[in-house]
Amino acid sequence: MAKPKDIDWGELEAIIDKHRGETWALIPLLQDIQETLGYIPEESIEPIAEALNLFPSQIQGVISFYAGLSLKPKGKYVIRICRGTACHVKGGRSILRFMKKEVELDEGETSPDYQFTLETVACLGACFLAPAMMVNRAYFGKLSPPKVTSILAEYGKKKGED
Ligand code: FES
Predict the structure, then answer these.
(1) Which residue among 90, 93, 96, 127 is best mutated to probe the pocket of ligand 1, counting the most ligand atoms within 8 A of its Cβ?
(2) Which helix (H) or strand (E) holds 121?
(3) Three-state secondary-structure class, residue 158
(4) Residue whose CA is closest, atom 1 of ligand 1?
(5) Distance of CA 95 from the midpoint of ligand 1 (Å)
(6) Domains and CATH numbers, the chain
């Protein structure tokens, strides 16, 4: 079973060192860590704060503000279902219900094998595709249950698989 990568402290320190003293670089630094490790380990907050002369609470605040940053490991594939108005009127809610059943996850959950994370967002900015979702950076629109099943199959989700 795949597990989130163990923290590679060498890699983490290299990212922090690259931005040492650059207070303005907090967000790019956090994005770097997020992309490299798939999340921002709690243990990295102190060293980041020290390197950028900030308070740990400032780092925490930024992480909780930005949807793309997370203190928890996420799945290899992050599914984001739109719950905005345009998607809602085109059946977005039933797509979300169907997706929850297919991946056996609730909003905000990650599968035990770290394959999928399910999230919802206020609007994906692709309302003309309603109902829409994203898997990592890829957009999918005009969704229907069969379409969702075939998209999930592309990402390695087999029918009946946990
Ligand atoms: S409302 Fe769903 S993409 Fe905008």
Answers:
(1) 127
(2) strand 116-121
(3) coil
(4) 84
(5) 13
(6) 9-65 (1.10.10), 77-154 (3.40.30.10)
126 lines ligand 1 (CB under 6 A): yes
Cα(59)–Cα(76) distance, integer angstroms: 24
Cβ of 81 less than 6 Å from ligand 1: no
Indicate the DSSP class of residue 110: B
Cα distance between residue 162 and residue 160, in whole Å: 6
Per-residue pLDDT tens digits of the chain, which is 162 residues long: 344 556 778 889 999 999 999 999 999 999 999 888 888 999 999 999 999 999 999 999 999 998 788 898 888 899 999 999 999 999 999 999 999 999 999 999 999 988 999 999 999 999 999 999 999 889 999 999 999 999 999 998 765 554
